[in-house]
Amino acid sequence: MNTIAVMPTVTSEEKSTPLFLKVLAVIGIMILMGGSITGLMTYLNQGYSELFFAQWIRAFLTAAVTVMPLGFALMALLTKLAERYLPNSSEKVRNVLIGVIMAMVMESGMAFSTAINSVGVIDTSRLVNIWLETLISALPLALLLMAVVSITLKPKVERFLKN
């Protein structure tokens, strides 16, 4: 008795990752990166008090709707530019370079939004001083996070989002 095994065909639609999982991945990265950096910045600006969590959430949400969407767009652009202008460099080298640039850009934006939440915009000289102090103080964490994320998570997340 001969039997014929029929293998089900898998279409690209069945393999593709659902959109809600892609959105959850991006939100997870935003919370990890933005939450830790704005948390540190809020602590540096305000210290720890009863108002800390409310100020932190406000700083995070401000960054989440302003700085982070721009950051994701910039990261996509920088990735394309790095692939085009540094084709002979390894992916890890390109990712570290992009990570350092993104750390500086995102850090500056989050430091600015956190400083605005902390001191307001009326006293611009104080705002600039708080922004610069926050930027310099939190930069080591931002560089560390971006280096780790660029080397480990970014390639995996890019593959996940393209699927």
From TrEMBL:
Annotated protein name in UniProt: DUF2798 domain-containing protein
Claim: Phosphoprotein is one of the keywords in the record: no
Keywords: Membrane, Transmembrane, Transmembrane helix
Pfam families the record matches: DUF2798
Domain of life: Bacteria
Secreted as UniProt keyword: no
Protein source organism: Vibrio inusitatus NBRC 102082
Transmembrane segments: 20-44, 56-75, 96-116, 128-153
InterPro entries xref list: DUF2798 (IPR021529)
